[in-house]
Design goal:
The chain is elongated, with a radius of gyration of 18 Å. By secondary structure, it is mostly helical. The model has no long low-confidence stretch (mean pLDDT about 90). It has six helices and no strands. The two termini are about 25 Å apart.
């Protein structure tokens, strides 16, 4: 896969992740302000994104509130963290700098770790399946190998340049 295709795949995944994060935020805020709101991703009693996106784990990953206080400025919706995350990745993922590429790989690894954590919460604690959440998990899983391959390509180019000098 060429560097251009990898960059395109990364940017596309970031845009999909951003869209999913914005939609998740919309669902969460709509449901909190109107308990009768029914999101298009609420399919059945076991497949509902509203329950996950309004749970105690939907803000600050369920950790920031208990540690720093529920009114702490960092205790915001996970979907807002996701939107910022995907915007930053979108801006960084196409750079051909080894250090920036390493940062993007680290961010992708953290996103997969968060996917495991939030997936566990969704399945084992909330006993729910959220299509929007699951879709972001897929985006994170697909982004990681693209990022690793992109990083290896950049490292290879930098190594070749250094050998030629």
């Amino acid at each position: 896969m060429t560097m251009a295709l990898l960059g395109l795949a990364q940017r596309l995944l970031c845009l999909i992740g951003l869209f999913l994060s914005i939609y998740a935020h919309h669902v969460g805020t709509s449901k909190k302000s109107n308990p009768d709101y029914r999101a298009s991703c609420d399919i059945s009693g076991y497949i509902t994104c509203s329950r996950a996106l309004t749970s105690e784990y939907s803000k600050g990953f369920g950790v920031i509130g208990p540690l720093l206080g529920h009114d702490h400025p960092l205790n915001i919706s996970n979907s807002l963290y996701g939107a910022v995350f995907y915007i930053i990745l979108f801006l960084l993922c196409n750079h051909r700098n080894r250090h920036i590429s390493s940062l993007v790989v680290a961010m992708a690894v953290v996103s997969v770790a968060m996917t495991f954590y939030l997936g566990y919460i969704l399945y084992a604690v909330l006993h729910d399946f959220c299509i929007v959440c699951g879709s972001t998990y897929v985006v994170n899983w697909l982004f990681l190998p693209c990022t690793i391959i992109h990083h290896r390509s950049i490292s290879s180019l930098v190594d070749q340049k250094e050998k030629n000098y």
